[in-house]
Design goal:
alpha+beta, 20% helix, 10 strands
Length: 220
């Protein structure tokens, strides 16, 4: 094999490996504490000067207690990602706590940058995700049990019981992102045209307007 062909195969092989293991980028130093105030983002945040790094950059106490639920869905997500823990920058992990009232719902949504694994702290939940073949994979899970939601797939959690429930969620991204299906379609800015939503959901435009009004952000 010629040198040119050997180099081409080597480059292709390296590219294939890079693609196969694609996720949050690997760190090239011990730490890179996020410095959002810099305004610079290169698939993450710029690094704070190491001389200014403290233990506070790696600590967060916000998951110790249940979150306050004050919405009609009956659930609240408390995130522990790079926006709350600057030390997570470039480390490719984050955490959340989700609390549910009796009957509460974490509505269908996706995480475009991460797989999610949930551990039930208390209560019981009906959970599920939908594959690209439109198959629902669902199960009822209880305290001490785990369920996985693959990266990018639509999923939900519903507390069908008469007692509160809570879970801890882990992600393989410092900032997994959340794309709530109903909110994205019916309360985006600017809004998706009524006729598009009416045709997509086979409803009339008045029903679209009614849904938009229900999902509109509450004015303080």
């Amino acid at each position: 094999m010629s040198l040119t062909n050997t180099l081409a195969v080597f480059v292709f092989f390296c590219s294939a490996i890079s693609f196969a293991f694609a996720s949050d980028p690997d760190t090239l130093q011990d730490l890179c504490v996020a410095l959002p105030s810099s305004g610079v983002k290169v698939n993450g945040f710029a690094c704070k000067a190491e001389t200014n790094v403290t233990e506070a950059d790696f600590f967060f106490a916000g998951l110790a207690n249940p979150g306050v639920i004050n919405n009609t869905l009956g659930s609240v997500v408390t995130a522990a990602n790079v926006e709350k823990i600057p030390g997570l920058n470039t480390l490719g992990v984050s955490f959340s706590r989700i609390d549910y009232k009796a009957g509460g719902l974490n509505p269908p949504h996706t995480h475009p940058r991460a797989t999610e694994i949930v551990f039930v702290l208390d209560g019981e939940l009906d959970v599920g995700f939908i594959t690209t073949a439109n198959k629902l994979i669902s199960k009822s899970i209880k305290k001490g049990e785990i369920f996985v939601f693959p990266k990018g797939l639509v999923h939900y959690q519903k507390n069908s019981g008469d007692k509160p429930a809570s879970v801890l969620s882990a992600f393989n991204s410092q900032l997994p992102g959340t794309f709530s299906i109903a909110a994205a379609l019916f309360s985006s800015t600017p809004t998706v045209p009524d006729n598009v939503l009416a045709q997509a959901f086979q409803i009339d435009t008045k029903q679209v307007d009614d849904i938009k009004a229900k999902l509109a952000p509450k004015k303080s």
